[in-house]
Write a structure and sequence with these properties.
The chain is mainly beta. The protein has one helix and seven strands.
Length: 144
């Protein structure tokens, strides 16, 4: 399995969705990453790439992503890539790549109430390892 680490900004507020059969919640969001470069003629250029991301860890989605992540939040995400295939209403098959989130770190944390006093803190939510899913409080000291 290939592991991918990206750093970028959320393109929109994450969607918290419930699975039809089990009712388990997951977070779905898009991260934009911009690369700057210099062209052969010396001019500056930039390229923005979008990554569709899904976090299947219910605790991380509900207690970390939903209250703290929003459009424009700077994030660092680690996970693996999977193919996503679906058939549209017109019968055409569509293909896409998506990043399955294992670990996520918000670089600028602000709660939905708009309090900016914690704006520069780093907080981590994790699908594997430690974080919200393992019962750590975001306001506690990091245990390492």
């Amino acid at each position: 399995m290939q592991t991918l680490v990206i750093e970028g900004y959320l393109a929109a507020d994450p969607s918290i969705l419930s699975a039809q059969g089990s009712g388990r919640k997951r977070a779905s969001f898009r991260v934009l990453e911009t690369t700057r470069y210099r062209r052969a003629d010396g001019e500056q250029g930039e390229r923005t790439t979008g990554f569709n991301c899904v976090c299947f860890n219910e605790a991380t989605a509900e207690k970390y992503i939903e209250p703290f992540a929003r459009k424009g939040s700077r994030v660092v995400i680690q996970g693996h890539v999977e193919n996503d295939t679906w058939t549209g209403k017109d019968g055409v098959e569509h293909y896409d790549l998506r990043l399955i989130v294992a670990d996520i770190r918000l670089k600028n944390r602000r709660d939905r109430a708009g309090n900016d006093d914690a704006a520069s803190e780093d907080v981590t939510g994790s699908g594997t390892g430690f974080g919200i899913a393992d019962g750590y409080d975001l306001n506690d000291d990091i245990p390492f």
